[in-house]
Design brief:
alpha/beta; Aspartate Aminotransferase, domain 2; seven-stranded mixed β-sheet; Aspartate Aminotransferase, domain 1; 2 domains
Length: 392
Protein backbone atom coordinates (compact mmCIF):
# COMPACT_ATOMS: atom_id res chain seq x y z
CA UNK A 1 0.00 0.00 0.00
CA UNK A 2 1.26 3.46 -0.89
CA UNK A 3 0.87 5.95 1.97
CA UNK A 4 0.40 9.70 1.49
CA UNK A 5 2.46 11.46 4.12
CA UNK A 6 1.83 14.84 2.50
CA UNK A 7 -1.80 14.73 3.61
CA UNK A 8 -2.63 17.19 6.40
CA UNK A 9 -5.07 15.93 9.04
CA UNK A 10 -7.10 18.02 11.48
CA UNK A 11 -5.56 16.92 14.77
CA UNK A 12 -6.97 19.69 16.94
CA UNK A 13 -10.45 18.17 16.76
CA UNK A 14 -8.95 14.84 17.89
CA UNK A 15 -7.71 16.49 21.12
CA UNK A 16 -4.06 16.07 20.13
CA UNK A 17 -1.67 17.23 22.86
CA UNK A 18 0.81 18.23 20.18
CA UNK A 19 -1.72 20.54 18.53
CA UNK A 20 -3.12 22.08 21.74
CA UNK A 21 -0.91 25.08 21.02
CA UNK A 22 -2.85 27.72 22.94
CA UNK A 23 -2.58 25.69 26.14
CA UNK A 24 1.11 24.84 25.55
CA UNK A 25 2.47 28.01 23.97
CA UNK A 26 -0.08 30.64 24.98
CA UNK A 27 -1.33 31.52 21.51
CA UNK A 28 -3.33 29.80 18.79
CA UNK A 29 -1.25 30.74 15.73
CA UNK A 30 1.80 28.60 16.56
CA UNK A 31 2.81 25.69 14.30
CA UNK A 32 3.69 22.75 16.61
CA UNK A 33 6.91 20.94 15.77
CA UNK A 34 7.79 19.86 19.27
CA UNK A 35 6.75 16.66 21.10
CA UNK A 36 7.86 13.33 19.55
CA UNK A 37 4.55 12.58 17.84
CA UNK A 38 4.13 12.21 14.07
CA UNK A 39 1.42 13.94 12.04
CA UNK A 40 1.07 10.83 9.85
CA UNK A 41 -1.69 8.22 9.71
CA UNK A 42 -0.75 4.90 11.26
CA UNK A 43 -0.18 1.68 9.26
CA UNK A 44 -3.34 0.24 7.75
CA UNK A 45 -2.82 -3.17 9.42
CA UNK A 46 -2.99 -1.44 12.81
CA UNK A 47 -6.30 0.21 11.92
CA UNK A 48 -7.65 -3.07 10.53
CA UNK A 49 -6.75 -4.99 13.69
CA UNK A 50 -8.47 -2.39 15.87
CA UNK A 51 -11.58 -2.37 13.68
CA UNK A 52 -11.77 -6.16 13.90
CA UNK A 53 -11.62 -6.10 17.71
CA UNK A 54 -14.30 -3.40 17.78
CA UNK A 55 -16.72 -5.93 16.31
CA UNK A 56 -16.76 -7.61 19.71
CA UNK A 57 -18.92 -5.38 21.94
CA UNK A 58 -17.27 -6.11 25.32
CA UNK A 59 -14.08 -4.44 26.51
CA UNK A 60 -13.26 -6.01 29.86
CA UNK A 61 -9.92 -6.79 31.46
CA UNK A 62 -7.64 -8.57 29.03
CA UNK A 63 -4.91 -11.18 29.00
CA UNK A 64 -1.73 -10.92 26.97
CA UNK A 65 -2.03 -13.42 24.15
CA UNK A 66 0.77 -15.85 23.29
CA UNK A 67 0.80 -14.34 19.80
CA UNK A 68 1.76 -10.95 21.25
CA UNK A 69 4.84 -12.44 22.90
CA UNK A 70 5.65 -14.25 19.66
CA UNK A 71 5.46 -10.98 17.71
CA UNK A 72 8.00 -9.36 20.06
CA UNK A 73 10.35 -12.34 19.90
CA UNK A 74 10.16 -12.54 16.11
CA UNK A 75 10.64 -8.78 15.73
CA UNK A 76 13.81 -8.64 17.80
CA UNK A 77 15.22 -11.69 16.04
CA UNK A 78 14.45 -10.49 12.52
CA UNK A 79 15.66 -6.91 13.12
CA UNK A 80 18.74 -7.51 15.25
CA UNK A 81 19.38 -11.25 15.43
CA UNK A 82 18.67 -10.99 19.15
CA UNK A 83 17.15 -14.21 20.53
CA UNK A 84 14.78 -13.37 23.37
CA UNK A 85 12.92 -15.85 25.60
CA UNK A 86 9.26 -15.28 26.40
CA UNK A 87 10.03 -15.32 30.14
CA UNK A 88 12.25 -12.26 29.74
CA UNK A 89 9.39 -10.07 28.49
CA UNK A 90 7.46 -7.78 30.81
CA UNK A 91 4.60 -5.68 29.39
CA UNK A 92 4.52 -2.11 30.69
CA UNK A 93 2.27 0.92 29.99
CA UNK A 94 5.06 3.04 28.56
CA UNK A 95 8.84 3.22 28.62
CA UNK A 96 9.04 5.88 31.34
CA UNK A 97 7.00 3.87 33.87
CA UNK A 98 9.44 1.04 33.16
CA UNK A 99 12.47 3.30 33.65
CA UNK A 100 11.03 4.54 36.96
CA UNK A 101 10.36 0.96 38.11
CA UNK A 102 13.94 -0.01 37.22
CA UNK A 103 15.39 2.92 39.16
CA UNK A 104 13.33 1.87 42.20
CA UNK A 105 14.19 -1.81 41.79
CA UNK A 106 17.96 -1.58 41.33
CA UNK A 107 19.00 1.45 43.38
CA UNK A 108 18.27 2.73 46.86
CA UNK A 109 17.52 6.19 48.26
CA UNK A 110 20.58 8.39 47.88
CA UNK A 111 22.25 6.17 45.28
CA UNK A 112 23.76 7.93 42.29
CA UNK A 113 22.34 7.30 38.82
CA UNK A 114 24.22 8.46 35.73
CA UNK A 115 22.66 10.12 32.72
CA UNK A 116 24.24 11.90 29.77
CA UNK A 117 23.14 15.50 29.32
CA UNK A 118 21.45 16.82 27.26
CA UNK A 119 18.91 14.02 27.40
CA UNK A 120 15.18 13.28 27.40
CA UNK A 121 13.70 15.40 30.24
CA UNK A 122 11.75 12.66 32.13
CA UNK A 123 15.03 10.85 32.87
CA UNK A 124 15.96 13.63 35.27
CA UNK A 125 12.79 13.29 37.32
CA UNK A 126 12.97 9.47 37.23
CA UNK A 127 16.07 9.96 39.37
CA UNK A 128 15.17 12.94 41.57
CA UNK A 129 11.50 12.11 42.21
CA UNK A 130 12.57 8.66 43.39
CA UNK A 131 15.04 10.23 45.85
CA UNK A 132 18.15 9.11 43.99
CA UNK A 133 21.06 11.44 43.20
CA UNK A 134 21.95 12.73 39.76
CA UNK A 135 25.40 11.98 38.40
CA UNK A 136 25.64 13.85 35.11
CA UNK A 137 28.07 12.81 32.38
CA UNK A 138 27.82 15.75 29.95
CA UNK A 139 28.12 14.81 26.30
CA UNK A 140 30.80 16.63 24.34
CA UNK A 141 29.69 18.63 21.31
CA UNK A 142 32.18 17.97 18.53
CA UNK A 143 31.20 20.34 15.72
CA UNK A 144 27.59 19.18 15.20
CA UNK A 145 27.90 15.70 16.72
CA UNK A 146 27.74 14.40 20.29
CA UNK A 147 30.62 12.34 21.66
CA UNK A 148 30.97 10.63 25.03
CA UNK A 149 33.41 11.85 27.67
CA UNK A 150 34.56 8.38 28.68
CA UNK A 151 37.04 9.61 31.28
CA UNK A 152 34.29 11.44 33.16
CA UNK A 153 31.89 8.54 32.63
CA UNK A 154 34.33 6.10 34.21
CA UNK A 155 34.95 8.44 37.13
CA UNK A 156 31.24 8.56 37.91
CA UNK A 157 31.36 4.82 38.69
CA UNK A 158 34.91 4.12 39.83
CA UNK A 159 35.26 7.17 42.07
CA UNK A 160 31.72 8.51 42.37
CA UNK A 161 30.12 5.21 43.33
CA UNK A 162 27.21 5.38 40.88
CA UNK A 163 24.91 2.35 40.94
CA UNK A 164 23.04 2.64 37.64
CA UNK A 165 23.15 4.27 34.23
CA UNK A 166 20.14 5.37 32.17
CA UNK A 167 21.21 4.95 28.56
CA UNK A 168 19.30 6.70 25.78
CA UNK A 169 19.92 4.61 22.66
CA UNK A 170 19.45 6.02 20.06
CA UNK A 171 20.04 9.34 21.74
CA UNK A 172 17.31 11.92 22.22
CA UNK A 173 17.73 14.83 21.43
CA UNK A 174 20.97 14.40 19.48
CA UNK A 175 19.96 11.46 17.31
CA UNK A 176 23.23 9.59 17.82
CA UNK A 177 23.25 5.86 17.11
CA UNK A 178 25.87 4.61 19.52
CA UNK A 179 28.49 2.32 18.00
CA UNK A 180 29.28 -1.15 19.30
CA UNK A 181 32.61 0.12 20.69
CA UNK A 182 30.87 2.97 22.52
CA UNK A 183 28.28 0.63 23.99
CA UNK A 184 30.93 -1.88 25.06
CA UNK A 185 33.06 0.77 26.75
CA UNK A 186 30.06 2.13 28.68
CA UNK A 187 28.77 -1.34 29.54
CA UNK A 188 32.10 -2.63 30.81
CA UNK A 189 32.47 0.43 33.00
CA UNK A 190 29.00 0.13 34.56
CA UNK A 191 29.05 -3.65 35.01
CA UNK A 192 32.64 -3.62 36.26
CA UNK A 193 31.53 -1.28 39.03
CA UNK A 194 28.62 -3.56 39.96
CA UNK A 195 26.00 -1.33 38.38
CA UNK A 196 23.06 -1.90 36.04
CA UNK A 197 22.26 -0.36 32.65
CA UNK A 198 18.68 0.83 32.12
CA UNK A 199 18.47 1.28 28.36
CA UNK A 200 15.68 3.28 26.72
CA UNK A 201 15.62 2.05 23.11
CA UNK A 202 12.25 3.47 22.09
CA UNK A 203 13.65 5.06 18.89
CA UNK A 204 15.54 1.91 17.86
CA UNK A 205 13.67 1.38 14.58
CA UNK A 206 13.77 5.01 13.44
CA UNK A 207 17.31 4.74 12.12
CA UNK A 208 18.55 6.53 9.03
CA UNK A 209 20.39 4.89 6.12
CA UNK A 210 23.99 3.99 6.86
CA UNK A 211 23.43 3.38 10.58
CA UNK A 212 22.44 0.30 12.60
CA UNK A 213 21.00 0.09 16.09
CA UNK A 214 22.50 -2.48 18.45
CA UNK A 215 20.35 -3.57 21.42
CA UNK A 216 22.57 -3.20 24.47
CA UNK A 217 21.67 -6.62 25.89
CA UNK A 218 22.45 -8.37 22.61
CA UNK A 219 26.18 -7.63 22.89
CA UNK A 220 27.01 -10.39 25.39
CA UNK A 221 25.47 -12.58 28.07
CA UNK A 222 27.16 -10.45 30.72
CA UNK A 223 25.53 -7.33 29.29
CA UNK A 224 22.17 -9.10 29.12
CA UNK A 225 22.36 -10.22 32.75
CA UNK A 226 23.08 -6.69 33.94
CA UNK A 227 20.64 -4.64 31.91
CA UNK A 228 17.00 -3.71 31.47
CA UNK A 229 15.94 -2.95 27.89
CA UNK A 230 12.88 -0.74 27.37
CA UNK A 231 11.32 -0.31 23.95
CA UNK A 232 7.95 0.18 22.32
CA UNK A 233 6.23 0.47 18.95
CA UNK A 234 4.85 3.87 19.97
CA UNK A 235 7.42 6.19 18.33
CA UNK A 236 8.14 3.89 15.39
CA UNK A 237 4.54 3.38 14.33
CA UNK A 238 3.02 6.59 15.73
CA UNK A 239 0.83 4.95 18.37
CA UNK A 240 2.00 6.61 21.63
CA UNK A 241 -1.61 7.14 22.73
CA UNK A 242 -1.93 3.41 23.41
CA UNK A 243 0.68 3.44 26.20
CA UNK A 244 2.04 -0.04 25.50
CA UNK A 245 5.70 -0.95 25.82
CA UNK A 246 7.94 -3.95 26.36
CA UNK A 247 10.70 -4.39 28.92
CA UNK A 248 13.26 -7.16 28.36
CA UNK A 249 15.02 -8.48 31.49
CA UNK A 250 17.01 -11.71 30.93
CA UNK A 251 18.22 -11.90 34.55
CA UNK A 252 15.56 -13.77 36.56
CA UNK A 253 16.49 -12.14 39.89
CA UNK A 254 16.44 -8.66 38.39
CA UNK A 255 13.17 -9.45 36.65
CA UNK A 256 11.56 -10.45 39.93
CA UNK A 257 12.73 -7.25 41.61
CA UNK A 258 11.51 -5.20 38.65
CA UNK A 259 8.09 -6.83 38.81
CA UNK A 260 7.83 -6.04 42.51
CA UNK A 261 8.46 -2.36 41.75
CA UNK A 262 6.23 -2.53 38.69
CA UNK A 263 3.33 -3.78 40.77
CA UNK A 264 3.50 -0.66 42.95
CA UNK A 265 3.52 1.72 39.99
CA UNK A 266 1.36 0.47 37.13
CA UNK A 267 -1.62 -1.59 36.10
CA UNK A 268 -2.41 -4.10 33.38
CA UNK A 269 -2.03 -3.33 29.66
CA UNK A 270 -4.99 -2.10 27.64
CA UNK A 271 -6.76 -4.15 24.99
CA UNK A 272 -6.16 -1.84 22.06
CA UNK A 273 -2.54 -1.12 22.94
CA UNK A 274 -1.71 -4.82 22.75
CA UNK A 275 -3.65 -5.25 19.50
CA UNK A 276 -2.07 -2.21 17.86
CA UNK A 277 1.44 -3.17 18.97
CA UNK A 278 1.18 -6.73 17.69
CA UNK A 279 -0.22 -5.62 14.33
CA UNK A 280 2.55 -3.04 13.98
CA UNK A 281 5.29 -5.54 14.85
CA UNK A 282 3.92 -8.17 12.45
CA UNK A 283 2.68 -6.11 9.50
CA UNK A 284 4.04 -2.58 9.80
CA UNK A 285 7.29 -2.82 7.84
CA UNK A 286 5.85 -1.61 4.53
CA UNK A 287 4.63 1.57 6.24
CA UNK A 288 7.88 1.93 8.19
CA UNK A 289 10.03 1.74 5.08
CA UNK A 290 7.97 4.48 3.45
CA UNK A 291 7.84 6.75 6.49
CA UNK A 292 11.60 6.52 7.05
CA UNK A 293 12.19 7.62 3.47
CA UNK A 294 9.82 10.56 3.96
CA UNK A 295 11.38 11.54 7.29
CA UNK A 296 14.89 11.44 5.85
CA UNK A 297 13.69 13.71 3.05
CA UNK A 298 12.31 16.13 5.63
CA UNK A 299 15.58 16.03 7.58
CA UNK A 300 17.56 16.85 4.45
CA UNK A 301 15.14 19.62 3.50
CA UNK A 302 15.22 21.24 6.96
CA UNK A 303 19.00 21.12 7.33
CA UNK A 304 19.60 22.45 3.80
CA UNK A 305 17.06 25.23 4.33
CA UNK A 306 18.59 26.38 7.61
CA UNK A 307 22.15 26.16 6.30
CA UNK A 308 21.28 28.24 3.25
CA UNK A 309 18.89 30.75 4.80
CA UNK A 310 19.44 30.91 8.55
CA UNK A 311 23.19 30.43 9.21
CA UNK A 312 22.68 31.67 12.77
CA UNK A 313 21.10 28.27 13.53
CA UNK A 314 23.27 25.15 13.17
CA UNK A 315 21.63 21.73 12.83
CA UNK A 316 22.78 18.42 14.26
CA UNK A 317 22.03 15.79 11.64
CA UNK A 318 20.26 12.88 13.38
CA UNK A 319 21.45 9.35 12.70
CA UNK A 320 18.12 8.20 14.15
CA UNK A 321 14.78 9.70 15.25
CA UNK A 322 12.84 12.45 13.46
CA UNK A 323 14.20 15.10 15.82
CA UNK A 324 16.77 17.76 14.94
CA UNK A 325 18.81 19.41 17.71
CA UNK A 326 19.25 23.06 16.79
CA UNK A 327 22.18 25.14 18.02
CA UNK A 328 20.64 28.61 18.22
CA UNK A 329 23.47 30.34 20.06
CA UNK A 330 24.26 32.29 16.93
CA UNK A 331 21.09 34.31 17.52
CA UNK A 332 22.70 35.86 20.59
CA UNK A 333 19.68 35.36 22.86
CA UNK A 334 19.46 34.09 26.42
CA UNK A 335 17.21 31.07 26.92
CA UNK A 336 14.09 32.95 27.97
CA UNK A 337 14.45 35.32 25.02
CA UNK A 338 15.13 32.38 22.69
CA UNK A 339 11.95 30.63 23.83
CA UNK A 340 9.93 33.81 23.33
CA UNK A 341 11.52 34.40 19.93
CA UNK A 342 10.28 31.10 18.51
CA UNK A 343 6.81 31.43 20.02
CA UNK A 344 6.12 35.13 19.57
CA UNK A 345 8.19 36.14 16.55
CA UNK A 346 8.56 32.94 14.51
CA UNK A 347 5.27 31.46 15.75
CA UNK A 348 6.75 27.96 15.77
CA UNK A 349 6.46 25.64 18.76
CA UNK A 350 9.69 23.75 19.52
CA UNK A 351 11.04 21.97 22.59
CA UNK A 352 13.06 24.22 24.86
CA UNK A 353 16.63 22.92 24.92
CA UNK A 354 17.24 23.67 28.58
CA UNK A 355 14.58 21.13 29.60
CA UNK A 356 17.05 18.48 28.40
CA UNK A 357 19.60 19.69 30.94
CA UNK A 358 21.97 22.65 31.41
CA UNK A 359 23.91 21.56 28.33
CA UNK A 360 20.79 22.36 26.30
CA UNK A 361 21.09 26.09 26.98
CA UNK A 362 21.03 27.91 23.64
CA UNK A 363 19.43 24.94 21.85
CA UNK A 364 15.94 23.96 20.69
CA UNK A 365 14.55 20.65 19.38
CA UNK A 366 12.65 20.46 16.08
CA UNK A 367 10.30 17.59 15.12
CA UNK A 368 10.19 17.04 11.32
CA UNK A 369 7.69 14.15 11.34
CA UNK A 370 4.97 16.16 9.63
CA UNK A 371 3.74 16.82 6.10
CA UNK A 372 6.32 18.72 4.05
CA UNK A 373 3.97 21.70 3.65
CA UNK A 374 3.86 22.21 7.43
CA UNK A 375 7.64 21.92 7.71
CA UNK A 376 8.13 24.39 4.85
CA UNK A 377 5.79 26.91 6.49
CA UNK A 378 7.54 26.57 9.84
CA UNK A 379 11.00 27.07 8.35
CA UNK A 380 9.87 30.13 6.39
CA UNK A 381 8.45 31.58 9.58
CA UNK A 382 11.79 31.04 11.32
CA UNK A 383 13.66 32.59 8.39
CA UNK A 384 11.42 35.65 8.33
CA UNK A 385 11.67 36.14 12.08
CA UNK A 386 15.46 35.95 11.95
CA UNK A 387 15.55 38.39 9.04
CA UNK A 388 13.37 40.82 10.98
CA UNK A 389 15.70 40.53 13.97
CA UNK A 390 18.74 41.14 11.75
CA UNK A 391 17.06 44.31 10.49
CA UNK A 392 16.59 45.55 14.03
Amino acid sequence: MKYDFDKVYDRKSALSSKWSVEEIFGRDDVLPLWVADMDFRVPEPVLSAIRERLDHPIFGYTMVSPSFYDSVIQRLDSKYGWKVDKEWIVITPGVMPAVNAAVLAFTGPGDKVVLQSPVYPPFWTAITHNKRELAVNPLKLSDTRFEIDFEDFKAKFDEGGARAFILCSPHNPGGRVWTRDELITMGETVIGAGGVVISDEIHCELVMKGHSHIPFASISEEFAMNSVICFAPSKTFNIPGFHTSVTIIPNETRRRRFNEARGRLMGAPGIFGLIAAEAAFRYGDDWLEQVLEYIEGNINYAIDFLNNNVPEIRSMRPEATYLIWLDCRGLGLDQDALRRFFIEEARVGLNDGVTFGPEGTGFMRLNVACPRSILEEALVRIENAVKARRGR
